[in-house]
Amino acid sequence: MESTNLADLYELPLIDWTDIEGRLSGGVSQAPGTGGPDRHTCWLATINRDGTPHVTGVGALWFEGAFWFETGEQTLKGRNLARDPRCTLSLATHEFDLVVDGEAEKIIDPEIVATMAEQWSAQGWPARVDESGMALTAEYSAPSAGPPPWTIYRIAAHQATALATVGPGGATRWRFTPN
User: Is the pTM of this model over 0.85?
Assistant: First the structure.
């Protein structure tokens, strides 16, 4: 991983990626009253067919070092990702604002799908694996996810940028090297 101090001009310290991961691993609830300003919202940007951006809120989770989200394949974001997996996810926490650029990988492995259903269920959304074993279903989801089944995506991050909102401040960009 390569780190760049974007606040060097102000003699502010480099932000440590392990601090970002630690905070994300502690959870970023989207329930009202649990984050800033009133809750956390993850925003996903995809690329429309004409090259313009499409931005929408998603119920993303941080799990095993990556952001995961779900959506219906017929939603605009689902169609955009099928054509071009490049995307950006942004999130504001109390401690920092974060932007992650990468590619959304469609997840169809039944074991991983089941694990992620458990993760969302533990966060309060009663997701479960559908009959195909490769997607999720539930009694409800965000209206922007479309009707079930919902496909799971994992964002393979190429780079991330954080702006510290507490403490001494700072801004750092990380470029991740592929495994």
Answer: yes
Number of structural domains in the chain = 1
Q: Which helix (H) or strand (E) segment is 19 a member of?
A: helix 17-25
Q: Consecutive 10-residue runs of the chain (179 residues): their mean pLDDT?
A: 95 95 81 55 95 94 95 96 98 92 97 96 91 93 83 96 94 89
Whichever domain contains 151, its CATH number is: 2.30.110.10
Cα distances (Å, whole numbers) of residue 114 to 27, 32, 168: 19, 27, 41
Q: Kind and range of the H or E element at 63?
A: strand 61-63
Residue pair 15/58 in contact by the 8 Å Cβ criterion:
no
Enclosing domain of residue 101 = 2-175
* Interatomic CA distance for residues 160 and 150, integer angstroms: 26
CB 70 within 8 A of CB 96: no
- pLDDT of the residue at 85: 98
